């Protein structure tokens, strides 16, 4: 606040007067010690990181696309999506379950269980990712004829990256569970994309070919470096927080929550990336590149929801533990509004500037402009209920979440398979938007049915008289 106070002195008196109410609200958020204010502060931090991350990612993707052209860029984009998808699935749900259980164990003073969970989560992610990579290597070795030759080396490099992607996701979740937002998000969303770009530009400058292979080599090096540094830093903080001593394992309790979360997150990741994957299976790499560039623009809207989700999870856990249904409904409503209104403003701005933004990737990429409003419609629909899926899963309704996302995933895949061959990239965008709307409707109905919370960003939320126990 000292910086803000100093800056105010240079403003005209009339402007200072108009800004006073907004300054007071910001000061309350930054200086209040209440739990809601703490969650708001975490959301602001996550939001700021996502803004910077979006800028870095956007600039880096433009440079990569211009370096490689749409064909090589499409190869890199498709393979990188597979890397992120495989690495996230390899976490087996532990990247989310640590957010649920670490605050719980710490609140109960059970530090041995917290230490046991940290070790279990990291080892599970590393082992499963290594097994998945080994299977992938075997397939590439035994059945190379199944793939076009330009896929083989990028896929090999992608498989080598998997273990560090998985470990990084678990480390992110561990830091978020402790409220260390900068430690959680900066390696993945700031350091890694920056290093990928730096390594790629340096390699090309030193004479390496400007191809997807060079880009994947850069991604491999950046991922290993950022994840290992994050591990060393986080391990020190965890030792200070939980101490050193015996580990206590509660596999039954953790797995009862983690396995459904694995299905939920797995289906969610598949749902998020199904369009790019199916586009890559049906259309040539240059079309993948155009579609991926369009999604990189419109995805700027979604970092609002990501920031809110990062802060809301621990707060939901605490409110559910205290069984304060009125406070839970109120906070859920706040989270939905935090998601919707910024998403609306950012989305409309992107639609106005969309054609110019796509042209930055190269003239061929402007073909994807009409994908933007279609994708935005789906994202805005999802923003109406904010982090509804987080609330539902943390309330103990993981099986219902699995059912909801299973239905949405099947619908998304079927829609993509039906529409992409007929309508190309437009079909992929329509399929994705419809799937998001189905997801929103089903989550809204599920929350109303199980928790009695009518979650909708445009109205105030109150628990119904027929609220059910979580």
UniProtKB/TrEMBL annotation:
TM segment ranges: 47-67, 73-94, 123-143, 149-168, 189-208, 214-234, 254-282, 288-308, 340-362, 368-388, 400-419, 425-447
Pfam family, one: Polysacc_synt
Main location: membrane
Name of the protein: Multi antimicrobial extrusion protein MatE
Membrane topology: Multi-pass membrane protein
Statement: the UniProt record of this protein carries the keyword DNA damage: no
Compartments reported by the entry: Cell membrane
InterPro entries (UniProt xref): Poly_Biosynth_Transport, Polysacc_synth
Species assigned in the record: Pseudorhizobium pelagicum
Superkingdom of this protein's organism: Bacteria
GO CC term, one of those recorded: plasma membrane
Cited PANTHER family: O-ANTIGEN TRANSPORTER-RELATED, PST FAMILY PREDICTED COLANIC ACID TRANSPORTER
Record's keyword terms, sorted: Cell membrane, Membrane, Transmembrane, Transmembrane helix
């Amino acid at each position: 606040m000292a910086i803000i106070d100093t800056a105010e002195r240079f403003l005209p008196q009339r402007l200072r007067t108009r800004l006073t109410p907004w300054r007071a609200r910001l000061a309350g958020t930054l200086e209040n010690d209440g739990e809601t204010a703490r969650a708001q502060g975490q959301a602001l931090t996550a939001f700021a990181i996502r803004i910077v991350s979006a800028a870095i990612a956007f600039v880096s993707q433009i440079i990569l696309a211009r370096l490689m052209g749409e064909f090589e860029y499409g190869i890199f984009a498709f393979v990188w999506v597979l890397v992120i998808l495989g690495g996230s699935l390899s976490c087996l749900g532990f990247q989310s379950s640590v957010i649920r259980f670490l605050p719980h164990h710490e609140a109960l003073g059970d530090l041995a269980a917290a230490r046991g969970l940290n070790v279990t989560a990291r080892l599970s992610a590393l082992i499963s990712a290594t097994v998945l990579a080994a299977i992938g290597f075997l397939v590439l070795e035994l059945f190379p004829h199944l793939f076009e030759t330009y896929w083989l080396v990028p896929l090999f490099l992608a498989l080598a990256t998997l273990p560090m992607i998985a470990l990084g996701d678990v480390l992110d979740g561990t830091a978020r569970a402790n409220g260390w937002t900068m430690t959680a998000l900066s390696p993945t969303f700031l350091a890694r994309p920056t290093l990928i770009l730096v390594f790629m530009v340096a390699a090309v400058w030193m004479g390496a070919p400007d191809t997807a292979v060079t880009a994947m080599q850069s991604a491999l090096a950046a991922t290993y470096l950022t994840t290992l540094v994050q591990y060393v830093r986080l391990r020190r903080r965890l030792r200070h927080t939980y101490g050193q001593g015996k580990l206590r394992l509660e596999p039954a309790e953790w797995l009862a929550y983690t396995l459904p979360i694995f299905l939920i997150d797995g289906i969610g990741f598949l749902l998020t990336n199904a369009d790019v994957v199916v586009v890559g299976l049906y259309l040539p790499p240059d079309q993948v590149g155009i579609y991926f560039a369009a999604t990189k623009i419109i995805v700027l809207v979604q970092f609002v929801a990501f920031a809110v989700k990062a802060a809301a999870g621990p707060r939901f856990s605490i409110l559910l533990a205290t069984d304060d249904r009125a406070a839970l409904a109120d906070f859920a409503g706040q989270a939905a509004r935090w998601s919707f209104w910024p998403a609306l403003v950012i989305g409309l701005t992107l639609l106005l500037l969309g054609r110019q933004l796509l042209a930055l990737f190269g003239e061929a990429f402007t073909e994807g402009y009409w994908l933007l409003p279609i994708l935005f419609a789906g994202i805005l629909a999802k923003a109406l209920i904010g982090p509804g899926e987080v609330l539902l899963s943390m309330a103990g309704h993981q099986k219902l979440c699995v059912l909801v996302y299973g239905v949405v995933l099947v619908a998304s895949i079927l829609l993509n398979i039906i529409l992409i061959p007929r309508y190309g990239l437009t079909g992929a965008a329509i399929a994705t938007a419809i799937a998001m709307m189905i997801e929103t409707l089903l989550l809204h109905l599920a929350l109303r049915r199980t928790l009695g919370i009518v979650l909708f960003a445009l109205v105030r939320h109150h628990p119904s008289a027929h609220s059910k126990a979580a």
